[in-house]
Specification:
This protein has about 425 residues and is an alpha/beta fold. It folds into two domains: about 260 residues, Thiolase/Chalcone synthase (Peroxisomal Thiolase, Chain A, domain 1), CATH 3.40.47.10; about 150 residues, Thiolase/Chalcone synthase (Peroxisomal Thiolase, Chain A, domain 1, 3-Layer(aba) Sandwich). It has a ten-stranded mixed sheet with strand order 7-6-8-10-3-11-17-16-12-13, sandwiched between helices. Strands 4-5-9 form a three-stranded mixed sheet. A two-stranded antiparallel ribbon has the order 1-2. Strand 16 and strand 17 form a beta hairpin. The protein is globular, with a radius of gyration of 20 Å.
Length: about 425
């Protein structure tokens, strides 16, 4: 049996990749059900937060049980990104129903996207040795394994006894999608039989990221933290930095069917490209090209997409460019809804793409599109006819979700998930 997909040629049934498990921690929920409830209720996870040298800022802060799957010594030795990864990976595996005890773990791969890694640990060590006249003998011997780029995925393999390949993929704020795309490719190549994939972020624990956004004039401020993140709104004034993680178990369809697994959805299209334009300024033309390529590979038209999960970060130019890209692709698709999840939780950097996709996945079951909150007066340059603002919208049937995720240095990623119907 073969399914024809434009761009991929013939995709055999055993090459169809499905999501069978979900684990997450977000600033407004520590499970998919809790997270979804918050999104439909308009519940923000942004709070006042203190960071070193800068004092009070706003941030999306997670509150999960670090010790559910780790011992205290593991938490002390490892990293915040590692703890987030371990928590989400274990939750995803439990949710998947895999017989983990008897699974061949040499055939399991771990693919996690991240925006940056090592800043938190390096800042902490420099701060500590500053108390001792910068005596490097105080420097932790754990620093190197904490800061190597593969750390978050590596911590998952240590925790779960996985002996298959692991990668932490640096893809700026396109990284959550990039982790999923890498997993799809490795499953199709036969490199692994199960993949633990998604994205994670520990960004709020480095003062440097706050200071850099502040220096750019791109750090959000507001007297009420819950309304600070305002994508597409005329009064938006910048990014709210967040931490979090969204991790899925991915399998080939035939393997999921063989064990009668619950299937959340099928990944039917994906694309990545580069702007090749600027360090930070996005390019709507390249973003639109990325969306069109993902649609082509999925064998879908814009009108087939029920929900576009936008990347919009509440920066002026970023929102304008993405809105232009979306108008160019979906202008003739009046039934396509557009929403934004950052308005609830802030920008979870490497975890953003994965968390934003997962927040929309339950729409396959409940037929509701969660809103973009805090969008009271839309910036005319960001006008989007399908934008769902401030209140969720019941649409009855959702079959295809397209997830945008873009990042610095002009990296763009798109993932399309379709409701599984057989």
């Amino acid at each position: 049996m073969a399914v024809s997909r434009a761009g991929f040629g013939k995709v055999m049934v055993h090459d169809r990749i499905v999501i069978t498990g979900v684990g997450l921690t977000a600033p407004n929920g520590n499970s998919l059900s809790e997270y979804r409830e918050s999104l439909l209720a308009g519940r923000s996870g942004v709070v006042n937060y203190e960071t070193r040298y800068m004092g009070p800022v706003l941030a999306g802060v997670c509150n999960f049980d670090e010790l559910r799957y780790q011992k205290r010594r593991d938490v002390r030795r490892g990293t915040r990104a590692g703890s987030i990864s371990v928590y989400c990976a274990n939750e995803a595996i439990q949710d998947s129903g895999l017989d983990w005890a008897s699974l061949d773990r040499s055939r399991v791969g771990v693919y996690l996207g991240i925006t940056e890694h090592g800043n938190v640990e390096t800042e902490n060590e420099i701060y500590e040795i500053s108390k001792f006249d910068y005596d490097t003998r105080v420097w932790s011997h754990h620093h190197n394994p904490r800061t190597v780029a593969n750390n978050p995925a590596g911590e998952v393999t240590l925790n779960l006894g996985i002996t298959g390949p692991h990668l932490t993929l640096g893809a700026a704020c396109a990284a959550g999608n990039a982790g999923l795309i890498q997993a799809v490719q490795m499953l199709r190549l036969g490199e692994v039989d199960q993949a633990i994939a998604g994205g994670v972020s520990e960004s709020i624990h480095t003062f440097g990221i706050f200071a850099s956004f502040a220096a750019q004039g791109a750090l959000a401020t507001h007297e009420d933290p819950t309304v600070a993140c305002r994508p597409f709104d005329a009064a938006r004034n910048g990014i709210v930095v967040a931490e979090g993680g969204g991790i899925c178990v991915l399998e080939r369809l035939q393997d999921a069917l063989r064990r009668n697994a619950r299937i959340y959805g099928e990944i039917v299209g994906h694309a990545m490209n580069s702007d090749a334009r600027d360090f930070v300024l996005p390019d709507s033309t390249r973003q639109a090209e990325c969306v069109r390529l993902a649609l082509q590979r999925a064998g879908l038209t814009p009108a087939d997409i029920d929900i576009v999960s936008s990347h919009a970060t509440a920066t002026e130019q970023g929102d304008i460019e993405e809105a232009a890209a979306l108008r160019s692709v979906f202008s003739d698709s009046p039934g396509t809804c557009i929403n934004n999840t950052k308005s609830f939780i802030g920008h979870a950097m490497g975890a953003a793409g994965a968390l934003e996709l997962l927040g929309n996945i339950p729409s396959f079951e409940d037929g509701v599109v969660h809103a973009t909150i805090n969008c009271d007066e839309i910036d005319p340059r960001c006008e989007l006819s399908g934008l769902v603002r401030n209140e969720p919208r019941a649409v009855g049937s959702v079959n295809c979700i397209l997830n945008n995720s873009f990042g610095m240095l002009g990296i763009n990623s798109v993932v399309i998930v379709r409701k599984f119907t057989g």
